Amino acid sequence: MDFYRNNANLKWIILAVSVFISIGSIYFTEMLVNRLEEREKDQVKLFAHALEYTINSTQNDIQFIQEEIINKNNSIPIINTDGRDSILYYNNISLNDHWSTDKKYEYLRSELREMKETYPAIEIILKDPETHEVFGKQYVYYKNSFLLTELTAYPYIQILVLSIFGFISYLAFNYSRTAEQNQVWVGLTKETAHQLGTPISSLMAWIEVLRDDPQVKNKGIVEELEKDIRKLQVVTERFSSIGSTPSLKSENILQLVNRVVSYLQPRVSSKIKIEVYALSESIQAMVHPPLFEWVLENLCKNAVDAIGSTGTIAIKILRGNENKVLIDVSDTGRGMPKNIIANVFKPGFTTKKRGWGLGLTLAKRIIEMYHEGKIFIKDSQENTGTTFRIELKSA
Ligand SMILES: Nc1ncnc2c1ncn2[C@@H]1O[C@H](COP(=O)(O)OP(=O)(O)OP(=O)(O)O)[C@@H](O)[C@H]1O
Ligand SMILES: [Mg+2]
What we know:
- This protein is of the alpha+beta class.
- Helices cover about 55% and strands about 20% of the residues.
- The chain starts with a helix and ends with a strand.
- It binds adenosine-5'-triphosphate and magnesium ion.
- Adenosine-5'-triphosphate binds next to α7 and α9.
């Protein structure tokens, strides 16, 4: 039980760390973006000043400014307009050579509209070089460079990639864990069945010897021993079936249930009654009898434990829709609170002193993997009782 609680905690810790990393990454990039934005703004200002200077100057150093400042901007998209909003100059806006002049013009206007919405224009004041009289204005519009735009999107792309990666690793981890568990189940059961085989056949030979012994004859000992050996054979068959892929057969469910009940009833306290109800005597379903009986036995044993001293176990065989056969196992036992219901099918979960927490895990495995059916808790009320439901495909 602790393992599962720790495991759930681990999931939350990993989630919290991922959220922390994501927020950190967004925050850090945001800082970078802000700094880069400032720098680009300064660059555009410098560009605008240089432009203003070259327009208003009569000096010969214009060429240097033109080459070193104005033409050096090769990343920030810029549009320079006159006082009447006509485009005089643009830079770092890629126009397709195949476009018509109209199309190019349209594109530039739309870029300009976008720039106007992004940042305020930088003014260029036109002055007469000699009288310094102001005779007009121009405007420089700009928007973020491609690099800056990319950087803004970067943390989101990073988070997306990380989540996809995390999701895939989680699936892979889960898959490998299940595969590992399967290997342990199959290996262990096969080995057990194999090891039981030899002593059982030798016991059977010994019974034949005893049968003829005059001292043992007619005392009922051989018959009792035979029953025990038969049970051992059933157990071996269960173990070997779970280690292979058992084939399903159409079986009469009522007969099967009655067989299990007649085995169990003499073995439980006489104060616990096991009752069987069937909607019809001829309900058939696809099952592998040795494994299916094992499931019923486990459910009944749990019911007996839940009841304690006096009570009833009711097994109802019903027909469901979509060709399903339903088997409800109800008890008048102590029932379960919600936090237990959520865990009963997990391997190793038990509330019993001597329990292994394997009975229901095994039942689930047998019903879901070998019978392609379902098993679940239909209802459980504390101090009133519990009903487990099995859904099988009808024959
Ligand atoms: N009919 C029931 N009524 C109340 N509680 C139940 C019932 N069936 C199962 N449980 C609860 O589910 C737990 C898990 O059951 P499961 O059969 O898997 O293991 P277990 O009975 O504890 O041990 P094991 O079957 O391996 O000997 C039980 O310990 C019990 O708390
Ligand atoms: Mg059990």
